[in-house]
């Protein structure tokens, strides 16, 4: 499908505005054929009704003629006293023939009526089929014109055009079902994100999140989990064993600087410490044995000071330190070379 008209990206549109139109010249030409077919079916119906009316009049005339023949045969039969035996027999046979003919015509009448009703019904069905085809063709032609479903901002997607990669524009050819445009309601922004399948079981609808914007490093907005996908996304260029699940976050607060299609990073809060705690990198926490107390090396004026800590919640990269460490203190990510394991 080739795009003929397209609303520019960043345009504010109202509900019902035309935002895209595809090439539908062939469909419009076919509409003329369908309209002619409907008109022809209507004329055929008029012709059929006229022919059936003529047939009804002819059948009535045949019935009247057969009845008149019966009456004439009865009158002729009354002259048998003055007729010869041969003529009298001929008149009796003529009466029997006229009555049989009249009876036959009367018996054929219901079948003729049913035949007429069947012919009319067939023509009605043909008319309905032609009208449905016309309606379907009109709907298909109308579907080639895309209208905005809501008030919002036009956001165009990118497409591979030969060796170039750029925004979709008029004249581009799209495949059926290809995503090419969004109408974004700037009063309610949603972040389209993905999460590793390993972490998906920890997510719940309504969990709080923090969203940071690459374009504005100092901007952080609150959000919450709006929806969680039921199936993984396709791997694309990544290895087939790497799977991600789509997640949508709705921003709880907006900022004038936020526009659609910005790249962001989001942290979803699975659990939270009840009291204030310092955050330290996982690799900064050491243990002499798996059962021994954890400790860190804190930078001081005299060098590195070993200090035992109490740990709280953790993720894959950071851990909360409840006691033994204050925010802002510098910790070692590896054991200081002048200290050996088990020494302070």
Number of helices: 2
Major sheet, described briefly?
5 strands, antiparallel
Number of domains: 4
Summarize the helix and strand pattern as letters: EEEHHEEEEEEEEEEEEEEE
Helix content: 25-40%
Structural class: alpha+beta
Please give the order of strands in the largest beta sheet.
9-12-11-10-13
Give the number of DSSP strands: 18
What features would you highlight for this structure?
single chain; 344 residues; alpha+beta; Elongation Factor Tu (Ef-tu), domain 3; 4 domains; 5-stranded antiparallel sheet; 3-stranded antiparallel sheet; 2 helices
Quick structural overview:
The protein is an alpha+beta fold. It contains two helices and 18 strands.
Describe what you observe in this structure.
This protein is 33% helix and 27% strand. With 344 residues, the chain is α+β, with helices and mostly antiparallel strands. The chain has four domains: 1-23 and 152-187, no CATH class; 26-143; 188-268, Elongation Factor Tu (Ef-tu), domain 3, CATH 2.40.30; 274-344, conserved putative lor/sdh protein from methanococcus maripaludis s2 fold, CATH 2.40.420.20. Helix 1 runs antiparallel to helix 2. The protein starts with a strand and ends in a 21-residue tail after the last strand. The mean pLDDT is 86.
Layout of helices and strands:
Layout lengths: L2 E4 L5 E2 L4 E5 L2 H53 L7 H59 L1 E3 L4 E5 L1 E4 L2 E4 L13 E4 L5 E7 L11 E6 L6 E9 L15 E8 L12 E5 L9 E4 L13 E6 L2 E6 L1 E5 L3 E6 L21
Antiparallel strand pairs: 1-3, 2-5, 3-4, 5-8, 6-7, 9-12, 10-11, 10-13, 11-12, 14-18, 15-16, 17-18
Helix pairs in contact: 1-2
């Amino acid at each position: 499908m080739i795009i003929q008209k397209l609303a520019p990206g960043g345009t504010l549109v109202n509900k019902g505005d035309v935002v895209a139109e595809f090439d539908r010249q062939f469909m419009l030409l076919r509409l003329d054929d369908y309209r002619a077919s409907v008109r022809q079916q209507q004329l055929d119906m008029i012709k059929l009704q006229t022919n059936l009316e003529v047939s009804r009049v002819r059948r009535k005339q045949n019935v009247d003629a057969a009845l008149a023949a019966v009456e004439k045969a009865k009158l002729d039969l009354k002259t048998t006293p003055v007729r010869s035996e041969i003529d009298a027999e001929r008149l009796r046979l003529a009466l029997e023939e006229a009555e049989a003919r009249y009876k036959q015509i009367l018996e054929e009448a219901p079948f003729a009526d049913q035949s007429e009703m069947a012919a009319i019904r067939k023509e009605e069905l043909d008319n309905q089929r032609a009208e449905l085809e016309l309606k379907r063709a009109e709907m298909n032609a109308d579907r080639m014109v895309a209208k905005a479903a809501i008030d919002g901002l036009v956001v165009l997607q990118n497409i591979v055009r030969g060796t170039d990669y750029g925004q979709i524009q008029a004249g581009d050819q799209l495949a059926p079902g290809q995503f090419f445009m969004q109408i974004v309601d700037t009063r309610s922004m949603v972040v389209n994100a993905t999460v590793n399948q390993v972490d998906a079981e920890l997510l719940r609808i309504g969990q709080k999140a923090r969203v940071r914007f690459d374009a504005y490093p100092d901007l952080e907005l609150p959000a919450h989990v709006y929806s969680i996908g039921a199936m993984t996304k396709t791997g694309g260029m990544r290895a087939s064993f790497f799977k991600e699940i789509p997640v949508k976050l709705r921003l709880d607060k907006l900022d004038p600087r936020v526009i659609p299609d910005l790249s962001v990073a989001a942290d979803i809060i699975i659990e939270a410490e009840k009291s204030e705690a310092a955050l330290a990198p996982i690799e900064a926490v050491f243990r002499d044995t798996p059962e021994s107390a954890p400790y860190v090396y804190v930078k001081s004026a005299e060098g590195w000071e070993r200090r035992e800590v109490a740990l709280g919640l953790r993720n894959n990269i950071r851990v909360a330190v409840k006691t033994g460490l204050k925010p802002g203190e510098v910790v070692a990510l590896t054991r200081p070379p002048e200290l050996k394991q088990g020494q302070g």
